[in-house]
Amino acid sequence: GAVVSQHPSRVICKSGTSVKIECRSLDFQATTMFWYRQFPKQSLMLMATSNEGSKATYEQGVEKDKFLINHASLTLSTLTVTSAHPEDSSFYICSASGTGARGDTEAFFGQGTRLTVV
Amino acid sequence: AQSVTQLGSHVSVSEGALVLLRCNYSSSVPPYLFWYVQYPNQGLQLLLKYTTGATLVKGINGFEAEFKKSETSFHLTKPSAHMSDAAEYFCAVSKASGSARQLTFGSGTQLTVLP
């Protein structure tokens, strides 16, 4: 199957700093990437959808100025958590989909990033 | 709008017993349906998916699911549980058109396999 690499897997940062999470499609061109957030023992909640070269579309209630998403190439999307606070601590997961026989029906997930803000 | 309901946040089965994880969905358009498995602090791995065609879908690790339109269900089964099946399972739905890869997830079911 297609491979999506997410980095870092874990990050601890101080309150007030910014953290960047990368999501890379390694063997296909990801025209669309999705960013999800998962609280402990809860489901995944879609934060935003980004199409390569376009501004991301954020879900209701997600602060676009706090969660900056860049999808500048067909293989890389980044999520930057700006001025992080302890309540931003969570598990963030990206998924990517592209073109082709499988791309229209399936998205491939990264390994996730555990963010802890202290 | 689409939604997914997973009945039972925790399911325990004995090793070798039948696994049944329930999923019901709501969708105003033809859905694509998915089951994912998540191990602690990891991303999601696709077990199986239904898009079109045969309503009984076979996936990896011996899992299968049946799409029942009349019941709006997509329950996940495995005839014989293995210890390695212990994980969190998510049912998800997406639209069959448009942004087909944008998923709406259920709340998840934690499967425990007892020795």
What brief labels describe this structure?
heterodimer, A: 118 residues, mainly beta, seven-stranded mixed beta sheet, B: 115 residues, six-stranded mixed beta sheet, four-stranded antiparallel beta sheet, 52% strand, globular
Termini separation of chain A comes to 37 Å
Strand content of chain A: over 45%
As residue ranges, the low-confidence spans of chain A are none
Q: Please, what is the average pLDDT of chain B?
A: 91
SS strand fraction of chain B: over 45%
Q: What pattern of helices and strands is seen along the backbone of chain B?
A: EEEEEEEEEEEE
> Can you count the helices of chain B?
0
Major sheet of chain A: size, sense and barrel closure?
7 strands, mixed
Q: Give a count of the beta strands of chain A, DSSP E runs of length 2 or more.
A: 11
Shape of chain A: globular
Mean of pLDDT of chain A: 89
What would you say this structure looks like, in words?
- The complex is a heterodimer of chains A (118) and B (115).
- With 118 residues, chain A is mainly β.
- Chain A has no helices and eleven strands.
- Chain A is 0% helix and 53% strand.
- In chain A, the strands form two sheets. In chain A, strands 2, 4, 5, 6, 9, 10 and 11 form a seven-stranded mixed β-sheet that branches. Chain A has a four-stranded antiparallel β-sheet with strand order 1-3-8-7, with no helix packed on it.
- In chain A, a hairpin with a 2-residue loop joins β7 (67-73) and β8.
- The N and C termini of chain A lie far apart (37 Å).
- Chain B is an all-beta fold.
- Chain B has strands spanning 3-5, 10-14, 19-21, 24-26, 31-38, 44-50, 56-58, 64-68, 73-78, 87-95, 104-105, 109-114.
- In chain B, strands 2, 5, 6, 10, 11 and 12 form a six-stranded mixed β-sheet that branches. A four-stranded antiparallel β-sheet of chain B has the order 3-9-8-7, with no helix packed on it.
- In chain B, a hairpin with a 4-residue loop joins β8 and β9 (73-78).
- At the A-B interface, β5, β9 and β10 of A face β5, β6 and β11 of B.
